[in-house]
Automatic annotation (TrEMBL):
Residues 293-341 form a coiled coil. Residues 400-475 form the Tyrosine-protein kinase G-rich domain. GO terms for molecular function: protein tyrosine kinase activity. The chain crosses the membrane at residues 454-476. GO terms for cellular component: plasma membrane. This is Tyrosine-protein kinase G-rich domain-containing protein. It comes from the Bacteria. InterPro entries: Bact_polysacc_biosynth/exp (IPR050445), GNVR (IPR032807).
Length: 506
């Protein structure tokens, strides 16, 4: 079939084409008049990094705590979008505004002969079937119906590569769409505060009261322990005892060295005394042993000088004073004996050298006895100091355990104080409606419908009418068995065409 044949078909069926196009145009016009336009109200929200995205560890391993921040923006935006489309929040919006305010005409019963009435009856029939087969899942109340329609109409989407959320709603009423979106955003801001709200402050108050009782009991236990065991500063007391132990050890070493020297001197004096005769030839007469008395007085003066030096440099309780006292007592006894003794000079008498060596030996033995007592006292003092140090170590372990428990309670109390302040700040922010979500632009009353789009409807109607008319024309021509052209003779009758006789005008 040539283009001329196609044009002939179109021209021949022009009435059908025009009729079909007119019917399509009338139908589209009627649809535009009957179907209400749909408007879309939209609000934009900015989601920032807020306090709920920061987590502070509750039990730090050290005194410095590092906060943990969540910076996964995509997941956070999806979470916020899920809160916006939550069924509970949708029901709260419906209860706040009312089903008729959100969807005007939702409670109107249309006449059965109208298109909306027919659709309404069909819906009732479907609901009846649903109630029969699934009685627990059917939506019976007007509020449930409005909530279901609200969830279908509301969308919350996150814009790519941004921290922005777009909340939109489609409605037949532009005013209802804007009002509903703004109400949804306001209720969402309140609801997210409740969702992200941390522990209540009364919980921290109870914990703080319990910690205060434990802290007071531990402080009393520490004070009682230190008062009972006379613990003021264990480190200082231990240092003082260690210094006293070192001093006692040094003095004991000096005493042992002096003992060794005195023992050596005593051994030498004994050997000299054995070799020296006790008597010697004298001219005669009677006299006192002035040499021995002088030597004993000199030794007594030396002992008194040493005692005064020790009392001045150390203390009256120094163990060496006991040895010096014993030595002074022995020297006084020797002095009394010498004063009572008279030397009778005859042909033989006392050897002065022997007496002097004997006196030196007695003095050395007295000093040695004093040194031995001093060494014993110093050893006893060392044992006593070591016992004190051991007791201090046990007390230090117990004191450190109590102090550590006290520090843990104080750290926990400080932590709960910070948590209580954070909870108070969160409640204050909730009361002031401060958060990390800000409204960029509230929903305004839309002026242009989103559907139907007039230019798309017109273009689609014209294109559909034209194509439908052409299709109808070719269909009618195909089912028509009349002969209109020369090739119809060949195709219909199967006879060859011999000639064409033009129609002559009358």
């Amino acid at each position: 079939m040539t283009a001329r044949d196609l044009l002939q078909v179109v021209f021949r069926r022009r009435a059908a084409i025009l009729t079909f196009m007119a019917a399509v145009v009338v139908g589209v016009y009627a649809s535009l008049r009957l179907i209400s336009p749909t408007y879309e109200a939209q609000a934009s929200l900015l989601v920032k990094l807020g306090q709920e995205d920061i987590y502070m560890p509750a039990l730090p391993s050290s005194q410095f705590r590092t906060p943990v921040m969540s910076v996964i923006r995509e997941e956070q935006l999806r979470s916020e979008a899920s809160i916006l489309t939550d069924p509970a929040l949708a029901r709260q919006v419906i209860r706040t505004l009312g089903p008729s305010a959100v969807f005007p005409g939702i409670d109107v019963v249309h006449p059965w002969y109208t298109p909306k009435g027919v659709l309404q009856r069909l819906t009732w029939m479907y609901n009846a079937l649903e109630d029969h087969f699934f009685p627990l899942s059917s939506q019976r109340s007007l509020e449930d119906k409005a909530v279901s329609a609200f969830q279908r109409a509301v969308k919350a989407e996150a814009l790519k590569s941004s921290n922005t959320l777009e909340v939109s709603m489609r409605n037949k009423s532009p005013d209802a769409a804007a009002l509903t979106v703004n109400t949804l955003v306001n209720l969402y801001l309140q609801e997210r505060v409740r969702i992200h709200q941390r522990e209540q402050s009364d919980f921290f108050a109870r914990q703080l009261a319990q910690l205060d009782r434990q802290l007071k009991g531990t402080e009393e236990a520490v004070e009682s322990y230190r008062s009972t065991h006379h613990v003021s500063d264990l480190d200082q007391q231990r240092s003082a005892q260690i210094a006293a132990l070192n001093d006692a050890g040094k003095r004991l070493d000096d005493t042992l060295v002096a003992m060794a020297q005195q023992e050596s001197r005593a051994a030498v004096l004994k050997q000299q005394l054995q070799q020296m005769p006790a008597t010697m030839q004298l001219a005669g007469g009677e006299s006192a042993n002035n040499l021995a008395l002088s030597e004993l007085n000199k030794q007594l003066a030396d002992v008194a000088r040493r005692e005064a030096d020790i009392r001045q440099r150390f203390s009256d309780l120094d163990p060496r004073l006991e040895g010096l006292a014993e030595e002074r007592k022995a020297l006084m006894q020797l002095l009394q004996d010498q004063q009572a003794q008279r030397v009778r000079s005859s042909e033989t008498g006392l050897n002065p050298a022997h007496a002097r060596i004997r006196d030196d030996l007695l003095q050395t033995e007295a000093q040695l006895a004093g040194l031995r007592r001093s060494a014993a006292s110093l050893k006893a003092l060392q044992q006593e100091i070591e016992g004190r140090l051991e007791r201090f170590n046990r007390q230090d372990a117990q004191d450190k355990q109590l102090t550590q428990q006290l520090d843990v309670l104080r750290s926990s109390r400080q932590l709960y104080l910070e948590k209580q302040e954070e909870a108070r700040l969160a409640q204050a922010q909730a009361a002031a409606r401060l958060g990390n979500v800000s409204i960029i632009s509230a929903a305004a009353r839309p002026t242009q419908p989103v559907s139907p789009k007039l230019w798309m409807v017109l273009v689609g109607a014209l294109a559909g009418a034209l194509l439908g008319g052409l299709g109808l024309a070719f269909l009618l021509d195909h089912v028509d068995d009349r002969i209109h052209q020369a090739h119809d003779i060949v195709g219909t009758l199967g006879l060859p065409l011999l000639a064409k006789v033009p129609e002559l005008a009358a």
